[in-house]
Every structure is written in structure tokens, then in C-alpha cells.
Amino acid sequence: MVLINKAINEVTVKLVYYGPGLCGKTTNLEKIYGNPKLENKGKMISMSTETDRTLFFDFMPMELGTVGGQKVRVQLYTVPGQVFYDATRKLVLRGADGVVFVADSQNNMRAANVDSFENLKTNLRINRLDPDKVAIVFQYNKRDLPNVDSVEEMSAYLNPGKAPIVEAAAISGTGVTATLRAAITRILENLKNNVDTSLKDAAPLAAPDMTAKSGATPGSAGTPKLSMRTEGGTFRTVSTPNPFEGAGAGITEPEEDPFGSEPAAAPATRAGNGRSDMESMLQGAREVVRALETALEKARQNERSLAERLSRL
Which domains, from first to last, does the chain contain? Predict the structure, then answer.
């Protein structure tokens, strides 16, 4: 849900990167954050678990111009792809204005891509958001690898419809800013056309079930990121070096302007009180923190249980 803060003359939109485990969501955000051309960024916040991370930062791309005479601030989120963090994914999707679905192009990831996309649609509906109206962009990532499906094959099983598709190799930065630009353009088009993305007849939101695995299967979990460790189970600020320094493997391309020069203009129709908007955002942030901490504790319990079983073998 677009937030309009008239006190500071600012529109805030929320963009979530979604996809199966290890598909490149985190890499996308790190490349965006490290782009020296992208200014007016907030700090990157990372919540680490034993197997994945949830990242967040916001920025104000001045090149976008204004929407209804108000500046645009973009909030970027990733969600963990592993099966047992489905409750976290539901919470992070709340109020999303757009989604980048990052699909892994490797031919052995077809089932994981399909499972994750179905999980996305399910969780959007749970959050009373219409999957057919929310601004969705598909990124076909890891195009630099040898064992990848063609774009036509991926589109055949993902069925993206009229949604934009961007080929990418996020590890080297290829396609990262093009994906971001396409996603924000779609969000602003929805604003300009007054598209209501909510599901009017959906049931009221209930408290999240922290054990739910809706729409996800073990195949969508990906391989655990063994090098990542939790630091006290709390939020920490990440100081990220410029990822564009040094050549990446596979596809390379010159740095591009993240947005282009044409300003976007659209009538803003949804107004909000500055204080109430901030309180709503704070409440949402607290819910995400609680969900992440609960999921982290469950993951630790599972780790201890597996370690005990292994010691008895």
C-alpha cells in the first residue's frame, strides 16, 4: 500500500524481491546498494538466520521526478526462500506495491521456481493483494551458467503473462538495475492509473502461523548458506563494499543509469496522515522482527535436534 506523507511531501512505495532459496535475491539488493550512482540511500539492515537473510534498505531516486508533486521513496526488501520461513515471507509481503520474482535459470530449478511462484501468489492473497494487479516483474537470473533453460522454456512453465521479463546475471551486475527500473516503472504506472491492488472480498488478516509452509515444498528450500551465521539473532547494520569493483564471472556489462532521465508524473490519490503512517510502518517493522526472531529460534531448535540425533549415530 502506497504511503503518502504530506508533512514531508513524500510518497513511499514498497518493492519485495521474492524467489526460491539461493536464486539471487540477496545478490540483487547488494548490487543495487553498492551502485555508486544510486544516492540518497538509507542504511542496509540485515536479519541473518542459519541459512538465509532478510535485507532492507530504502532510497530516494531523484531521477524519478515527482508523483503528484511529491518525492518518491522506494523501500526494498528481500525474503528468505527456505521452506520454514513462510510466515516471514507473508509478513514482508504485507503492503507490497510491487514484487520482483527472481527465478533461477538452471534447468534443475524448475520445480523450485514453480513452487516459489505459487507460494508468492498464495501469500499475496493471504495479504489481501491481487496477484493479477500487483506490479510484478520477472528476473530470469544466472544466465551466465551453462545448464540454463531458454527464456521461452522458463516462460512456458512460469507463465508470466504480460509482466516484464529481464534476463540477468546478478553476480556480475548484469540486468540488476534494468530489473529495478522495470519494477518501479510498473508501480508508478499503477499509481498513475489508480489501480486498486487489494482483494475486496478477502477475509480479515489473521495472526501468522509460524509453522505454516503454505505453497512451499522442500525443493524450494535451496542449499543452506553454510557460511552465514546469526549474530545474536538481532538486526545489525551491514557495511557493504562496492560490489561493482572487480570483474564478475560470466556476463558483464558497463554500469548503467539505474533509472533514466524522464521524470514520472501521476496524480496521487491516496492520502495519509504523517504520524499515522509512521506508526503503521513501525508496527509492521515490529511484526517482522518478532516473526524473524521466532523463526530463528525454531531454526536453532531444529539445529540442536539434528545435532543430538547425529551424535547418537
Answer: 3-311 (3.40.50.300)
